[in-house]
Design brief:
Oligomer: single chain
Helix content: 10-25%
Distance between the termini: 58 Å
Structural class: alpha/beta
Bound molecules: copper (II) ion
Radius of gyration: 23 Å
Number of helices: 1
Shape: elongated
Order of helices and strands: HEEEEEEEE
CATH class of the largest domain: Mainly Beta
CATH topology of the largest domain: Immunoglobulin-like
Number of strands: 8
């Protein structure tokens, strides 16, 4: 058998591979997308700046031994004092830039950018 005879088989296999790959990538990418999260640690918001899609819910979790809060600069949201491992979530519906601060430690600042 010449190489020529293999071509249709190779093309079909290649196409199946491409389709299979594309089919697998779409759903798995969506499933592995982690919800936006900010960790409060060492008296810092980590990351300090986070970019999310409109409609996303951002969750802050305090991993310090000290209580912290999450307070929007514009008054849009305000958490109570978060103890160790406590979380606070807020859903950002509109595009914009949202600054926030820990009201107990005003040097702790961060920004959510909603696209
Ligand atoms: Cu704080």
């Amino acid at each position: 058998m010449t190489l020529k005879g293999y071509w249709p088989l190779l093309a079909a296999a290649g196409l199946a591979l491409l389709l299979g790959w594309g089919g697998l990538r779409g759903p798995s990418a969506a499933q592995t997308a982690e919800p936006p999260r900010i960790v409060v640690k060492n008296f810092m918001f980590q990351p300090m700046s986070l970019t999310v899609e409109a409609g996303s819910t951002v969750t802050w979790t305090n991993m310090d031994e000290e209580p912290h809060t999450v307070v929007s600069n514009s008054g849009l949201f305000r958490s109570s004092a978060l103890d160790t491992k406590d979380s606070f979530s807020f859903k950002f519906d509109k595009a914009g830039t949202y600054g926030f601060v820990c009201s107990i430690h005003p040097q702790m600042v961060g920004t959510i950018v909603v696209q």
